[in-house]
Design goal:
The complex is a heterotrimer of chains A (about 675), B (about 200) and C (about 250). Chain A has about 675 residues and is α/β, with parallel strands linked by helices. Chain A is built from 18 helices and 21 strands. Classes of the chains: A alpha/beta (about 675), B mainly alpha (about 200), C alpha+beta (about 250).
Chain lengths: ~675, ~200, ~250
């Protein structure tokens, strides 16, 4: 019997959410004023949750490590946000969005959660537009849509290449409105270091004021972790430099199970690594694959300039392997195919770890259309390319500029070099239907939880999930728990040592505070020889090589041993300078890297346990003869939820995934 | 700043128009008639008070703003590459304005004061002769030229800046306003500069 | 590695060091050799910090996060200009190929009374958050929205609002302005909402409150030098400042 209760409501799939949210217990307004909610993280999930809960009357505190909530990494999302509005009259529906998401996730997501996500997706667009988010419009004044990978309808809403920025600023403005009204207390440049639990219930957090170094105790009736993903465990990723797992990891160590940690999304179109100095990777939007053709030379170690390689000597390997979807196969498939070519020795660039993304063909196509539109008879090749470049510039100008800025090469003249990079983590803290973790009163929202994307996330669905959780799920589901809290509070009204009276004076807070203070002093007292950064780099290399795009038993076993050794070395030889009572970015990073090291081990363990290939998790032992991923639905149709038992020790709990509305099938994009 | 600035610009138009009468080279006949009108017309007398009020307001505003702006950056940069993002004169309005103020004090002493004395003494004041006398001295000519150059740069930024401050920035009209501002500044200042020069060189007699 | 046209630079770096907001700071000079032109400016700082740590010296504190020019966190004043010599980019997008071998590079924090230095090159820009909190929003609670397509917005208006909304709140406008004025930042938000139908109801109150908060934070006044627009990594136009002036005047008249 599993210890996990996902608390999925009864009823048909279509009615579950509607019925549930109409029948969940409520908290009356007077009681809301006495309930404090701590929101950790201020991205789409955090900002939207904090604003919504404050509007409802809860007392809210928001914590973010950045200098302003507006800087959370949701801001960097480029492409768009999905919603089943069916504005394009192309047959979209809640069911279709639900189905696409389950299928895209390679049948490893929970049906009820995904259907709820699809249901509320339309409300998100309404809410954001009402806030003044300038989503793209048609000339008639209606909202515009574009298509994204893994779907056959146009359901992606966007704001040029800055959709995440605009949505986040919308949520941020709603949050700041509440801050201005005194309903939210904002604690920026604060890092959550631990969750305080009393009898297994979350009662608050320990946070460090990053400017003064002061350790603070904060009481809350509920704690919401909206802290994003953990892609930076790979050192190089498209995540922001500060993105980290610390809050989620500390919660994990306090009893929150970690779900599917090995599910990592590797995005196929990123600018390749240029040298050892590389600190992060930059994504080139998925939308580029609509007009770019991906290829490598047919000859190994071909050192000619790409423009000098004739057409018949190019291998458009995605079009060759997947004639039906071609360059638009899902992210996991495209990434693995690029790795396959490079590993086989066909890679390009000095590092040989890149493939070409070539716009010449479509530039010419646009050029000819443009020439026809302008009634130019028999245009020259140069004329065609000139006209075509204008069209390409209009569509992707900012991305091309970004590419040129980083590489120094002009993508209008020569193909882009791209290579896959870590982008998103589908895994995260295990949560039930209410988004509550296995620690009572502790919730996880957005990328920080594991719930909606299965083993692979579709493009434009991350923004959707973050905002769904924050605006439209947690405001209802939090009441389930807090209404019980109200009853408990009234029952314990006369108890002198109740948590409601003691709050942060409860010894559990002092205990947690001491532990975290000791930890910080430990970092500073090691006085070793190697920088925090160097440990992070080494961890990243192990993870990328052995727990990256392709994994096997041997590599994972090695990785676990290497990470354990790295952890020992870290704790005996790390060098952290400065002091604890000042702004000390190096010290902050030490804590984050220490947690990444532990997480890395669990990821490898999870990957080792999952003897199948699904979505972003590819086990070399489990592939078809053509090299495609081979799922094992008989033995692995479950969520792996890991329970922390001590250093390097975890216990696996399984949540069976039941598909009652969708027939499981092998994905095919051929 | 914008509204008082534009108000002062309107004065400049009147001032330069009447003074340009000297270029008729009629021994100051038309010019003196104009000057007489300006000195004795009761409406102009009242407007003159407004003008001084506007000038003082402009100066006080500038002083207050400059002080606030200084407070807004108590520690300055060690290295500033201002030329990379703005024109030197847009950043030097305070200096240009101070130069103008010095010039103005001398200028009022040269012309406004004698005219006023004459008015109070009920005497006819020959402003044209007054000009010829002042502009026969090289150092006054030089000072006036410096004053006019300061005015020119002050206007080059100030004219279009006033429109911006008053909220008038429009894709369609702003380019024309900017162009007009440039021509206005240059023409007004060339005319003003020509007065001491032509008199000093004896072209206007 | 990589693109293959990377060469190496030897540089002299003069960096502002300041212990905290109360301490007075000074410049520290560092020599760097073998800096690849493929590096970003911040990666060059990473190299420098690693070097400092290996020598047992404290790393230089600076703000940075996304390193792709969108979060607005990075904020260095390089050789007399916010975000350095290239237009239209943030510090993190600046690459070392914009410098020459033997260059001396002077790096300072944003300097403004409203942006106190926290440490070295990191400053406190929470004034911007307070300005937004004073009125930079549409008052719509979650769940109150009508169908998104019920609000028709002409494409040109939507695009113009988007142009203003592209602001990343980095503060380069304040840093560039000789008066430390925050007009470009404030006007971008005022404009975005003044241009959209959703922003009409609170239009007048919004501009009054936001400008009042801006003044309270201790930013300087706008003298229309245009430096902010020239240095804005997102190319926000000073047309927005004129619009805000207009909005404020009309709000004050009524």
């Amino acid at each position: 019997m599993s210890k996990l209760d996902s608390k999925i409501p009864e009823g048909t799939l279509e009615q579950k959410w509607t019925k549930y949210r109409s029948t969940v217990p409520l908290v009356n307004p007077a009681n809301k004023r006495n309930l404090e909610v701590l929101v950790i993280g201020s991205g789409l999930a955090g900002a939207s949750a904090a604003a919504s809960l404050a509007e409802m009357g809860y007392k809210v505190k928001v914590f973010c490590f950045q200098d302003s909530p507006r800087r959370a990494h949701s801001i960097a999302a480029q492409g768009g946000i999905n919603a089943a509005k069916n504005y394009q009259n192309d047959g979209d529906s809640t069911y279709r969005l639900f189905y696409d998401t389950i299928k895209g996730g390679d049948y490893r997501a929970r049906e009820a959660n995904v259907h709820r996500l699809a249901e509320v997706s339309t409300n998100i667009i309404d809410q954001c537009v009402a806030q003044g988010v300038p989503l793209a419009r048609e000339y008639g004044g209606l909202l515009s849509n574009r298509s994204f990978g893994g779907t056959q309808v146009q359901r992606t809403f966007y704001a040029a290449g800055q959709t995440g920025q605009q949505l986040l600023l919308g949520a941020y403005s709603a949050l700041q409105r509440q801050v201005g009204m005194g309903a939210v207390q904002l604690c920026s440049r604060h890092e959550m270091l631990d969750v305080v639990t009393i009898d297994g219930v979350a009662r608050g957090i320990i946070a460090r004021n990053l400017i003064t170094g002061e350790m603070e105790k904060h009481f809350g009736h509920a704690v919401l972790l909206c802290t994003g993903g953990y892609g930076n465990v790979f050192y190089l990723s498209t995540n922001a430099m500060g993105s980290n797992v610390t809050a989620a990891w500390k919660a994990h160590k306090k009893g929150a199970y970690f779900g599917n940690p090995c599910y990592t999304q590797i995005h196929p179109t990123c600018i390749p690594v240029s040298g050892d100095h590389q600190s992060k990777l930059t994504l080139m939007s998925e939308s580029l694959r609509n007009d770019g053709r991906i290829w490598v030379p047919k000859k190994k170690d071909d050192t000619r300039k790409p423009t000098d390689i004739p057409e018949e000597e190019r291998d458009y390997y995605l079009e060759r392997r997947y004639p039906a979807f071609g360059n638009l196969v899902p992210r996991d498939v495209a990434s693995r195919a690029a790795k396959e070519r490079c590993d086989a020795g066909y890679g390009v660039g000095n590092s040989k770890m890149a493939v070409y993304l070539d716009f010449a063909y479509n530039t010419a196509r646009y050029g000819r259309t443009e020439a026809a539109k302008r009634n130019i008879q028999n245009p020259s090749q140069a004329e065609i390319m000139r006209l075509g470049k204008e069209v390409v510039k209009e569509k992707y100008g900012n991305l091309f500029d970004m590419y040129q800025q980083i590489t120094g090469e002009n993508p209008y003249e020569t193909p882009m070099r791209i290579y896959p990079a870590v982008h998103y983590t589908m895994g995260g803290l295990w949560v039930d239907y209410n988004l509550m973790t296995t620690v009572k009163g502790l919730y996880a929202l957005g990328e920080a939880n594991f719930s909606d994307h299965g083993a692979n996330r579709l493009g434009a669905s991350a923004l959707m999930q973050g905002l769904a959780d924050g605006y439209f799920v947690i405001p209802y589901t939090l009441g389930v728990y807090l209404s019980a809290e109200v009853s408990r509070m009234s029952a314990e009204k006369d108890k002198t040592d109740s948590i409601d009276k003691l709050k942060t004076k409860h010894p559990a807070f002092d205990q947690a505070l001491k532990e975290q203070t000791d930890l910080i002093n430990k970092f500073l007292s090691i006085k070793g020889t190697k920088s925090v950064e160097s440990f992070h780099k080494r961890l990243g290399l192990i993870m990328w090589n052995k727990c990256g795009m392709a994994r096997n038993k041997e590599g994972l076993t090695e990785a676990i041993a290497q990470i354990q050794a790295l952890r020992k070395e870290f704790w005996s030889d790390v060098r952290v300078l400065g002091s604890a009572d000042e702004f000390n970015p190096d010290l902050e990073k030490a804590g984050r890297v220490a947690d990444f090291i532990e997480l890395g081990e669990l990821m490898c363990k999870d990957a080792l346990n999952r003897e199948e290939s699904c979505g972003g998790h590819f086990r070399e032992e489990h592939q078809t003869e053509e090299g495609e991923a081979k799922r094992d639905d008989v033995n692995f149709a479950y969520v792996a939820a890991w329970e922390y038992k001590g250093v390097s020790e975890w216990e696996l709990n399984k949540e069976e995934l039941k598909y009652e509305n969708i027939k499981i099938a092998q994905r095919s994009y051929k | 700043m914008g509204s008082t600035g534009l108000f002062l610009v309107s004065f400049l138009i009147v001032h330069v128009s009447i003074n340009s009468l000297i270029f008729l080279n009629d021994s100051g006949e038309s010019f003196n008639a104009g000057a007489h009108f300006m000195a004795h017309n009761p409406v102009i007398r009242i407007v003159e008070i407004g003008l001084f009020a506007g000038l003082i307001a402009h100066i006080v505003q500038a002083w207050v703003l400059t002080n606030e702006n200084k407070k807004a950056r108590p520690v300055g940069y060690a290295m500033v590459d201002g030329a990379a993002n703005s024109s030197w004169y847009s950043r030097s309005m305070g200096v240009l304005g101070s130069l103008l103020l010095i010039f103005l004090v001398v200028h009022l002493g040269n012309f406004w004061l004698p005219t006023k004395q004459a008015v109070f003494a009920h005497e006819e004041h020959n402003t044209f002769e007054n000009m010829k006398q002042v502009f026969s001295q090289w150092y006054f000519v030089l000072l006036y030229l410096v004053g006019v150059i300061a005015l020119c740069y002050h206007l080059l930024h100030g004219f279009q800046s006033a429109f911006q401050s008053l909220g008038m920035n429009h894709k369609k009209y702003t380019p024309s306003i900017k162009k007009f501002g440039i021509w206005f500044s240059i023409i007004v200042c060339i005319l003003f500069a020509a007065m001491p020069l032509t008199m000093f060189l004896g072209i206007i007699k | 590695m990589g693109s293959g046209h990377g060469t190496e630079l030897n540089l002299t770096l003069k960096v502002w060091r300041q212990k905290n907001s109360k301490a007075s700071g000074s410049f520290e000079t560092h020599q760097l050799t073998g800096i690849s032109t493929d590096m970003s400016f911040l990666e060059m700082f990473d190299v420098l910090n690693e070097k400092l740590i290996s020598e047992g010296k404290e790393a230089i504190a600076f703000d940075h996060d996304c390193r792709e020019g969108i979060c607005g966190m990075c904020s260095m004043y390089i050789n007399g200009r916010p975000h350095g010599p290239k237009q239209g980019v943030t510090t993190c997008q600046l690459h070392m190929r914009s410098f020459k071998n033997g260059d001396t590079i002077v790096v300072e924090p944003w300097r403004s009374a409203a942006f106190p230095v926290i440490k070295d090159l990191a400053v406190d820009r929470s004034a911007f958050d307070r300005i937004i909190a004073s009125g930079g929003y549409v008052s719509v609670n979650t769940g109150n929205a009508q169908d998104a397509n019920n609000i028709l917005i002409p494409k040109t208006d939507a695009d113009e609002a988007f142009g203003a909304a592209a602001c990343i709140g980095c503060g380069a406008c304040v840093a560039a302005c000789k008066n430390s004025s925050a007009m470009l930042f404030v006007s971008a938000k005022v404009s975005q909402l003044a241009l959209l139908p959703q922003g009409q109801v609170e239009r007048k109150e919004r501009v009054k409150k936001m400008v009042a908060q801006m003044d309270e934070e201790g930013f300087g006044n706008c003298t229309n030098t245009g430096a902010c627009e020239a240095e804005c990594p997102k190319g926000i136009s000073i047309e927005n400042i004129a619009r805000m002036n207009r909005e404020l005047m009309s709000a004050n008249i009524k």
